[in-house]
Design brief:
Layout lengths: L10 H17 L1 E5 L3 H11 L5 E5 L8 H6 L12 H13 L9 E5 L5 H6 L12 E5 L4 H11 L6 E7 L2 E7 L2 E4 L17 H8 L3 H4 L9 H8 L4 H15 L8 H24 L9 H8 L12 H8 L3 H12 L10 H8 L6 H21 L23 H29 L1 H4 L5 H13 L4 E4 L11 H9 L9 H18 L9 H15 L10 H13 L6 H20 L8 E5 L4 E5 L2
Parallel strand pairs: 1-2, 1-4, 2-3, 4-5
Antiparallel strand pairs: 5-6, 6-9, 7-8, 9-10
Length: about 600
């Protein structure tokens, strides 16, 4: 896919998700169900970063009321009492003005009711929903149609976001069977290999003769040259030297514990103090302090960070789907006779990273994980059995002169290239039909990203209760178990109250409250639902608090408060960007916001 990006306009966000992420955003096709203040805020925050294709599904029934005008900043007084089907264009035009220079922006409105009939009508249209990269359902209280939508798309791993804004409360939940993330942007810790230096790094460390001669200084002769050499040594080299010395003292056994890190930091500080003392004694009693030495002390914890496969990554390796492993066996057995026709569909989908859907992207992800498993197996160290991942090759800025830094950076990058080449060769052996394509640039680019980030992979899976819209035993145990925040608020009560409220609205569908005593009647009905739950089975006595929250929800009369909708729209758009770019880690998988206490809590169901 070829697409021009306005790099000046999107400069700041390009620094967050790079050009690849921006291309995915501009090429995304988002479906938003229902047009309201919440969805307008969501769309606003998608238009600004450059989303070009948005489809809105809404019946647009009736006229804009005074409540609509007060709740939605994208409406004006001129829209009051005007038919929604006619004047919705004012909202669309106001939204488009937010990124008026974007001539590619297309907001399509389907003026139909989102219900079971709509879903059934589009079932035969060659996967109507699959033309979208993501579906966002806002303020929808017809759970029958919502469940039907989920059943329609869940097997295709199409992300569906449910976002509600009612009164002072916000609710967010993502429905996605599996989300595999390579670029989590969690690589804030430098993969230095200080405690596992590879051969080139060892050899480079040995070239700093001054570290060997420091104890032999016995006169002022040449002390200036020694000082210049010492203050230009990268802290990585210093830590490799000090770690080797410490390892000898500890008989080659060092644990990565808080106590051990403190001991090693003390050892580094004492070693540096001895160097300072030696210089002081031979420099006419002039006291000096080197920035790289201070950096070495501050970064000493890096030396004890294991370079082995972590428990989290091992868990991902152990959960490779059987169909990926089975296809590998078939490829190995039939490589000479198979012309690749069986994998043609997969191959065409996965090669272009900017066009693939979640299902195909995840399949490629698991193939890379299987390749990683093979890479790790091939790189078990014979002397101690440690299993190492590919080196990321990223070297952060540090105190040093240009010559030493550039040399060190080249060493790390060369090791990265070597590991990446080995990884590519292993991938070719395991999945020859996926690699032997006319377009190898994207697959190589994908492998490069994977090798750089394989220390920080994340796989999110929805649990069995993630598709449930009703209160059940597991949900009660989860949200009532550990849901008390630092303010002493039990957010489990809020979650249960919201689910009961939404489920009630789904069955009653009495969104337009009218008549004397309507709020009282609704409150009494909701209280009855709460009291029917057998709370004693969960050793819980907070049902009265749940009833109080329900009273507040009823008092809101299902109306939005724009600042709450604005916040939820911002959160929702942020999660959409994460899912579209396949970068950063989305909320997993349920969150509520309480505007009364300005608090957020989340659960994994």
């Amino acid at each position: 896919m070829t697409m021009l990006v306005d790099q000046a306009r999107y400069d700041r966000q390009l620094r967050l998700w790079q050009l690849d992420g921006q291309l995915l955003i501009e090429n995304a096709n988002i479906c938003v169900i229902n047009l309201n203040a919440l969805s307008c805020e969501l769309i606003k925050n998608l238009i600004l970063p450059g989303v070009n294709n948005i489809t809105i599904i809404d019946e647009l029934k009736g006229n804009f009321s005074s409540i609509d005008i007060s709740n939605n900043f994208f409406l004006t007084n001129e829209d009051l009492n005007q038919p929604k089907r006619k004047n919705y264009t004012s909202i669309i035009n106001n939204l488009k003005e937010l990124n008026s220079n974007n001539t590619k922006l297309n907001i399509n409105v389907i003026r139909e009711k989102f219900d079971e009939q709509f879903i059934e009508k589009n079932q035969g249209k060659n996967n109507f929903w699959l033309k979208f990269d993501l579906v966002v359902v806002t303020n929808n209280y017809n759970y029958k149609s919502f469940k039907k939508l989920l059943n329609e798309v869940i097997d295709y791993n199409l992300p569906v976001l449910e976002i509600n804004s009612v009164g002072f409360f916000g609710y967010y939940k993502i429905y996605l069977r599996e989300n595999c993330i390579i670029e989590t942007n969690l690589n804030t810790i430098f993969d230095s290999r200080i405690n596992e230096p590879f051969e080139q790094l060892k050899e480079y460390t040995e070239t700093f003769q001054v570290l060997k001669d420091i104890d032999n200084i016995d006169s002022v002769d040449g002390i200036e040259d020694i000082i210049e050499s010492l203050k230009d040594i990268p802290y990585v080299v210093l830590l490799i030297k000090f770690y080797g010395d410490y390892l000898k003292i500890k008989n080659n056994k060092i644990e990565n514990s808080l106590i051990e890190r403190k001991k090693f930091k003390k050892f580094v500080r004492e070693s540096i103090d001895r160097i300072y003392l030696k210089i002081f004694e031979n420099n006419g009693n002039d006291y000096l302090e080197f920035e790289n030495f201070n950096e070495c002390i501050n970064k000493s914890n890096q030396a004890l960070i294991s370079s082995e496969v972590s428990e989290d990554i091992q868990e991902i390796i152990d959960s490779i789907p059987s169909e990926i492993a089975n296809r590998t066996n078939n490829n190995n057995n039939n490589n000479n006779n198979n012309n690749g026709d069986d994998d043609m569909t997969i191959k065409e989908n996965v090669i272009n990273e900017n066009n693939i859907n979640n299902k195909d992207y995840n399949e490629l992800f698991w193939k890379l994980v299987l390749t990683l498993k093979s890479f790790v197996k091939n790189n078990i160290r014979k002397n101690d059995g440690k299993r190492l991942l590919p080196l990321s090759g990223i070297l952060p800025d540090m105190e040093s002169n240009s010559v030493n830094y550039i040399k060190l950076k080249g060493i790390y990058y060369d090791k990265f290239k070597s590991d990446k080449e080995e990884f590519i060769n292993e991938f070719k052996k395991l999945f020859p039909s996926d690699y032997d394509s006319s377009n190898k640039i994207d697959i190589n680019n994908m492998i490069e990203k994977f090798c750089k980030n394989c220390n920080y992979l994340v796989v999110q899976r929805n649990g069995k209760n993630s598709l449930s819209t009703k209160i059940n035993e597991q949900i009660l145990k989860t949200c009532l178990g550990e849901s008390v925040n630092s303010k002493g608020i039990n957010f489990g009560n809020y979650y249960i109250a919201l689910i009961i409220f939404f489920e009630y609205l789904s069955h009653k569908m009495d969104r337009d409250i009218g008549g004397d005593g309507a709020q009282c009647r609704r409150t009494l009905k909701l209280e009855e639902i709460v009291r029917q739950i057998k709370w004693e089975e969960y050793d819980y006595a907070g049902n009265e608090e749940i009833i109080n929250i329900l009273k507040e929800l009823v008092r809101s009369e299902n109306n939005e408060i724009h600042n709450i909708s604005s916040l939820m729209g911002g959160i929702g758009s942020q999660e959409v960007i994460k899912l579209i770019t396949k970068q950063y880690t989305p909320i997993d998988n349920t969150m509520i916001f309480d505007g009364l206490t300005s608090s957020i809590y989340k659960w994994k169901f």
